[in-house]
């Protein structure tokens, strides 16, 4: 794959033949290629130009390649560094990566191997740039119009379209999804998109948080003396939501008695306050939500079938976070900004390791869990970038990723498939993949060549 844009590469090596050879290979491939014979010369070049990629030898005349990595990462964190070593020890590789190297290769340098690594770096940079542009696009086009809903994945765009289609109707909407997926945020977005109701009241109530008596009073109101403690008349939530929207979360927890009264209010808008005889009317738009399987509850007899069909006019299913991982970078940025304001902090982003952890995490608590993790990490962060050490100690206990088995354990399976899976698991970092497979890095590269494993052009 040739460079489609002029990525700049600096080659640092004190051996003229190696330096010139690499220069010619990369120049022909279309890269903006430069050379330096020492770390000091490379540092001088960095004063006038920030390079996208640096390929440096470990053994240099005065300052070493590791010392050059430290300098580069300090003044240009976005620059990716490939370390070239003639020693090939795991200790050297680990030390280089700790100091910020993208990967390392051993001498003699194989042309395809160095191109292979450069292509991986370009893919990484392209992805980061796309995520940045996507955050800006969604921030401008979706965040305000959908009342704080964040996301640009296909499932979320489908939900946005559905909201725009049904918001201005009078139809009852049933929102389903796991706990923490943001059902309340979706309900508010529907209200905000409703031209007739957006300037009227949005009233919400969690049905599972109250006893049957208190819930009935909250929904329909009560008259003075209706029960002990009813010292004056009270207006219920349905009255407050007249001409606006009422959102009832955990609708599955309503008792059979309340289900009958909800059915009636959905049929004709009529109800009586607790202890009263006067029939009142409401024109509230009703949105309900549940994280339970209502069809199953109907089959079990704990939820009325006629009420189910009344609230199931427009079903809206919110996907769990693990099914919309493309939205995680956007949500992370949103929650970082909110946590900064709340906690008087100045965090800007998460590092690459945390991003990978987040993308691979199952998020059983969904968006609510992500929000809490981000707020805790922002509070604990000692630098502008959140690192793995800033995350809650129990964060990874729920991780569902299957560990890569050793190469010896998987001999009975097709070797090419095993290697591909290991590389994907490590985001194509061959050093990590080799360690996980229980083989050395040179063997892994030879296997990749043997089975024709390389990036698509």
Distance between the termini: 5 Å
The CATH H-level superfamily of the largest domain is P-loop containing nucleotide triphosphate hydrolases
Structural class: alpha/beta
Number of domains: 3
Q: Please describe the biggest sheet, giving its number of strands, its sense, and whether it closes into a barrel.
A: 5 strands, parallel
Low-pLDDT runs: 140-145, 400-413
Examine the coordinates and then state which fold CATH places here, giving the name of the CATH topology of the largest domain: Rossmann fold
Total DSSP helices: 18
Approximate strand percentage: 5-15%
Shape, per Cα inertia axes: elongated
Rg, please?
30 Å
Structure, briefly:
By secondary structure, the chain is of the alpha/beta class. The protein has helices at 16-28, 39-46, 65-75, 90-98, 111-141, 154-166, 183-193, 212-220, 237-240, 256-268, 294-300, 305-311, 328-343, 352-360, 366-380, 415-425, 430-437, 441-450; strands at residues 8-12, 32-36, 53-57, 80-85, 103-106, 173-176, 202-206, 221-222, 234-235, 245-249, 270-272, 279-281, 285-290, 314-317, 349-350, 385-386.
